[in-house]
């Protein structure tokens, strides 16, 4: 299991479009991918769960990848989040 803290850089947070990009990125992997935000644990493969979490710009999140391809999943998820999920 891998865990990494990241800052959301999207100017408008994780609304529909970036939440969709995040979820589609997570779905490419067999590993379980969880986002911790405050007290919430969000399944990253569910766009509705990601959107419902209300993650704003500048928020600190913890990404957890657990499974057979966790290293590749963590690398890809980190790059996607740090690059603004297509919005920067």
Automatic annotation (TrEMBL):
Cellular compartments annotated: Cytoplasm
An example Gene Ontology biological process: phosphoenolpyruvate-dependent sugar phosphotransferase system
Keyword field contains Mitochondrion: no
CDD domains for this protein: PTS-HPr_like (cd00367)
InterPro entries: HPr, HPr-like, HPr-like_sf
Major subcellular location class: cytoplasm
Keywords: Cytoplasm, Phosphotransferase system
Gene Ontology CC: cytoplasm
Keyword Cytoplasm: yes
UniProt cross-references to Pfam families, sorted A to Z: PTS-HPr
Protein name listed in UniProt: Phosphocarrier protein
